[in-house]
Amino acid sequence: MVRSIYCHFLEGRKCGIMGLQKKLKEAEQTMTNIKRTGVDRHRAKKIKKYLPLYCLMAFPLLHIFVLKIIPLFGVLISFERYRPTKGIFGSQWVGLDNFRSFFNSHYFELIFSNTLILSVLGLIISFPLSIIFALMLNEVRHQRFKKAVQMITYAPHFISVVVLVGVMQQIFDPTIGILQFFVGKEAASQILLMADPKYFRLLHIGSGVWQSIGWSSILYTASLSNVSVELYDAARVDGATLMQKIRNIDFPCLVPTISITLIMAIGGIMNTGFDKIYLMQNGTNINVSEVISTFVYKKGLLQADFGYSTAVGLFNSIINCIMIVGANFTVKKITGESMY
Length: 340
Prior knowledge:
single chain; mainly alpha; MetI-like fold
């Protein structure tokens, strides 16, 4: 009798606990539904609020998708003996033959070294110069003079490469150029700067620095403008010199900007630019001016060897990808700043 009553008691207790658990689950489900409804309403309200911005963002995203993402399927051409009449999926598949042909050719060492030398020299010279220029500009206190310098140095960025090379050809022309005013007309006629291989890299990098130093310094100038005036006042009170201010105030504020721009610059280390090099190129300086971009143009468009030229371009892109990942990892370890 006692055992029977005890069993009924346990069974009732068990049913009560199960019922309580069921009610708790129902309550939790109800709260979850309420929260989800609230989140959905908040999300819909947020989307409605920023809908015009989403519409504006749709156009560049569409541009990237159509002109950047979809053409990636063309990479398949680098593994084929591509024929335009047969298309991508109808051309003969050759695997890595195009890459082997490029690596085994006598062009590989020449154009790879030329590309690397021009890119590295340009980075080593132009990158620190733009930072130094921004630091110098930051010390100018006469606003009119500062704005005049900015306008003069920013203007070359908007000059077309075709116009720039044309001006260089006129300036360094042995018959009508400025050299005849310094060394005489007879001596100037013997100096062919635009045709001499010794001066090609100097002219290419020098004109690039002249054209980009002002524009490249904009980000650094903007970063320096956000430095608190109180820091300069405190440094002045402590008797800090100009170099001490730059080392302890200006440069630390520039580190995040320098880190990002350096990563991007290293990521494009193999992109020397096609336009100016091709316009400055001629038969006498081709041994130092032939780079990957001009080689791809000649092989692909002039000789219609699309598979081979695409393989060379893909190799160039892979190198850039490896460089940007490596640069991002290294800069993150050193400064703590990174792109991702």
